[in-house]
Amino acid sequence: MSHGPSASGGALARAPHAHDDTPHEPVFVGDRAKDLDAILLKYPTKMAALLPALWIVQEARGWVSEGGMAEVARVLDLTPAYVKGVVSFYTMYHQHPVGKYFVQVCTTTPCNVCGAEDVVNAFLQHTRCGELGATSADGRFTVIEVECLGACGFATPVMINSDFLESVTPDTVPDILAELT
Amino acid sequence: MGYPHQSHPREAVVLSKYFGDAEARTLAGWKARGGYQALEQALGMAPADIVTIVKDSGLRGRGGAGFPTGIKWSFMKPGDGKPHYLCCNADESEPGTFKDREIMRWTPHALVEGCAIGAYAIGAETAYIYIRGEFTEPLEWMNKAVKEAYAAGILGPNAMGTGKRVDVHVHKGAGAYICGEETALMNSLEGRRGNPRIKPPFPAVAGLFGKPTTINNVETLVAAAQIVKQGAAWYKQWGRADNPKSTGTKLFSVCGNIARPGNYEVPMGFPFKDFLWELCGGPLPGRTIKAVIPGGSSVPIITAEEAEGALMDYEGFVAAGTMLGSGGVIVFDDAQNMVKQIARLARFYAHESCAQCSQCREGTAWTTRILERIRDGQGTMEDLDTLLSIGESMTGKTICVLSDSCAVPVSSGIAKFRHEFEALIPKSRHRVAVSAGAA
Questions:
Q1: Which residues of A touch B140 (CB under 8 A)?
Q2: Which residues make Cβ contacts (< 8 Å) with residue B143, sequence separation at least 6?
Q3: Contacts of residue B261 in chain A, CB cutoff 8 Å?
Q4: pLDDT tens across A113-156, in order?
């Protein structure tokens, strides 16, 4: 059960985390605009669609830039400063570009007592990220520690982009990384 | 089923019956297992009668606070002309707890059904399931289940052909432990920073979007659906005869240094010793259990000896000096250094503080700094007194209980494992007792 039954196979390859330097194209056009319209129907206020709208931006662009925040502000009738205030509250929105594979290793107490720090170190070593939060020179990896992923009985859980891996040990790290393109 | 283990004969498998049964995830599979009969039954009843059944069952909130569910539901006043909301708290983030995740992964329709029944019972037209952003797989299953339920006419303007409107929507969080606090969750759902709100007003008066709202944990709503279907007396068959305050079954998540981690569903009042040794297999080979946190990281740490004497219900854990909390059991064996682990817990709270209240913002960070310095051999005996004093100042003084929760493992840890703290403090930094008579 090295990857655990919850790893939805194939999703890694579809990870939308790659980023480049092309100018910012609007996010809320075409299907994404339609998605937002459908989301707005679920709530009595436009503001309630803020977290979902930010998710759409991050899924499209890999992170939430100032431009992305401004666009969300525009479509939801909010101010950019307000949107930034909300973005900065939540840990999952990237305010800077991250590696193609964003690796989050849980090291909170329940996983810590099962050796999670060794798992983090294995990821740091094998991805050559050097330190937590840094992106590897080839742009492929960013590794961070994350607080309780809520899968404590499957220590150590690791998220790679939206994939959720269970029961990761230092020994299984090389195999996990080898599967990433 | 009891994924990932076969359920133990001494478990009382109600909510976890279909854990590991992939077919139960689909609408067809759920219906084949008796799913949505409870909702059909509920929609044919007067909402007040549903509230009465849940009240009579003795069901209490399974998220941590243990507030009687039926009483909470009775605070809602349907028909006052305002919109009403039900929030389902699926922001499971309390270290040690992973039961709601399994409910959503294996029986997503059970939660849709529970939400629909809860919403109808309290006169809410809309229920929101707030799922933490990291739960990507449970989120996928919940989205799929909701979609299936709408397509089949179970949800929507004519729920199950009754002409009654029940909407259930899934909302994805974005990474913040504090959003599991009920009013922070509502702020987050409204598109705000997840800062807890000052109470009163309580959610039943002014909750989500300022409207009357009830908020329930995932496990609570799933249990309520079973109670509606099978009755209050059926639910009360579980529990200690001498303790009517804790009824039914409870899911406990077990993790840390234990032979068989996972979710176990036992009757309220189950002996904790049998639970740890017989069901969970006891410590890892060659190890002994040193300490246990039985209800998620926010409840007091107890020693193995205290754990062995505890009974697993709200009152039983209080009698043992701790709390049932969310049912997240964290086991520490003799290979663990308690100072290191308590420091790690403090760091968790410091990271998750929303920083609204100064006692919490400063206290969680200060506590962490002191604990890490003791862990690293740089502490003094005075530091222990300082920790306890900070803890006191962090308790009962803030908008929500995150601050209190940080103080709990520290004060209980020092009380129970003081020798481990002292062992890390260099002898040169021990306070020297000078007797008055010494020349």
A1: 8
A2: B170
A3: 152-155
A4: 999 999 999 999 999 998 999 999 999 999 999 999 999 999 99
